[in-house]
Design brief:
This protein is mainly alpha-helical. The chain has helices spanning about 5-30, 30-45, 50-70, 75-85, 90-100, 105-120, and strands at about 90, 125-130, 130-135. Strand 2 and strand 3 (about 130-135) form a beta hairpin.
Length: about 150
């Protein structure tokens, strides 16, 4: 490979690095809480930064509307985070995600938190026969593909 070819290759690589740095600067330029949430979501769910930013915005919106009610409850917060990232989920899919985030959580506790979140207007529950499909209220398209891994829909 000639010196010119190497320099062109290096220039292309540097250009890609600069593009990524610019994207990161835009992300960091968000409100502090949203940026922190985006980093937590990206790490916890192993998703790209842009998806994490969108999910963090949904999470921040929900948490700001119910402050202490959800933010102080680790299981309720994990439910909100899972729904913000994955979109609508069945109760079983939600259980898997909450357990992955928190380590342990019983079905009855998760079901009780979902009921409480529904009363607060945070989530909407659609019953399809014996199954419950849970989504963030007013979040029709939110999250990754709702038929993706973990959704169970």
């Amino acid at each position: 490979m000639s010196l010119e070819d190497r320099l062109e290759r290096l220039e292309r690589m540097l250009s890609r690095v600069l593009e990524k740095l610019e994207r990161l600067e835009r992300i960091v330029g968000m409100a502090g809480d949203e940026a922190r949430l985006a980093m937590e979501v990206a790490t916890a769910f192993a998703i790209p930064a842009q998806e994490a930013v969108a999910a963090a915005k949904r999470i921040a919106k929900v948490l700001s509307s119910v402050e202490g009610e959800v933010a102080d409850d680790g299981i309720a917060r994990a439910i909100v985070e899972a729904l913000a990232v994955n979109g609508p989920m069945t109760l079983r899919g939600l259980e898997r995600e909450v357990r992955r985030l928190r380590g342990t959580a019983s079905r009855s506790v998760i079901r009780e938190r979902v009921r409480r979140l529904e009363e607060l207007g945070v989530v909407e529950v659609e019953r399809r026969g014996r199954r419950m499909v849970i989504r963030l209220a007013g979040d029709e398209e939110g999250g990754r593909d709702s038929r993706g891994p973990g959704s169970g829909v």
